[in-house]
From TrEMBL:
This is Phosducin b isoform X2. It comes from Pundamilia nyererei. Residues 3-215 form the Phosducin domain. One of its GO terms (biological process) is regulation of G protein-coupled receptor signaling pathway. Keywords: Phosphoprotein, Sensory transduction, Vision. SUPFAM superfamilies: Thioredoxin-like. Belongs to the phosducin family. It holds the Pfam family Phosducin. GO terms for cellular component: photoreceptor outer segment. The keyword Translocase does not apply. The gene is pdcb. It comes from the Eukaryota.
């Protein structure tokens, strides 16, 4: 995101629109016009009159055709870049499968200092482990700044320490420090539990950050006549 001031924002949006368009099916005249609009300083006619001219009717009509989906994508990109600039820490997708004790140590010791790391130690066939993995999949999408991981007790190299009676286990870290150590964590939940139950359990100890509020969709604005 390189824009500065209103004109920079407009040009940045035009460049984004051109990049996201289907270049194969775009009318050549329209593609060239949008290219010139997104890079006014590179237009063939560099006379002062051309650079300072007002937007033509043709250009105005083109801007009116900007589709809503592309505008939402542009806003999402800007929000993501702003988020990264403010150093809120990295974002993650899904649950990370750790395949060794070394991977387990690395994720604890090398993760960003502001990142909460939740590790599920499980074993196939142990009651509650599969359900907890499914719950973490759901929570990972709702808490993108939290790094959710899972590791098989045998793969972790600590099968003796985490015997079947202590599984599933949830460990919570931040900046390399152990914040939560919940052995046989499902004993704190109902027989049948869901992602909201696991979320509530972790929140009861203050271990999850504030959930991000979803962006308001433009649909609400469009419904206002």
């Amino acid at each position: 995101m390189q824009h500065e001031g209103p004109k920079g924002v407009i040009n940045d949006w035009r460049r984004f629109k051109l990049e996201s368009m289907d270049q194969e099916n775009l009318n050549p005249a329209k593609r060239e016009l949008l290219r010139q609009m997104s890079s006014p300083s590179k237009a063939k006619d560099t006379s002062r009159g051309n650079l300072n001219r007002k937007m033509s009717v043709q250009e105005y009509e083109l801007l009116k055709e900007e589709d809503e989906g592309c505008l939402k994508s542009y806003r999402k990109r800007c929000m993501q870049e702003m988020h990264d600039k403010l150093s809120f820490g990295p974002r993650f997708e899904g649950v990370y499968d750790l395949d060794s004790g070394e991977a387990f140590l690395e994720v604890i010791e090398k993760e960003h200092h502001s990142t909460v790391v939740v590790v599920h130690i499980y074993k196939n066939g142990i009651k509650g482990c599969e359900a907890l993995n499914s719950c973490l999949d759901c929570l990972a999408s709702e808490y993108p700044t939290v790094k959710f991981c899972k590791i098989d007790a045998v793969a972790s190299g600590a099968a003796e320490r985490f015997s079947d009676e202590y599984l599933p286990t949830l460990l919570v870290y931040k900046a390399g420090e152990l914040l939560g150590n919940f052995l046989s964590c499902t004993q704190h939940l109902n027989e049948e539990f869901f992602a909201t139950d696991v979320e509530g359990f972790l929140n009861s100890y203050g271990l999850l950050p504030e959930k991000e509020q979803p962006q308001m969709e433009d649909d609400e604005e469009n419904n206002i006549e």
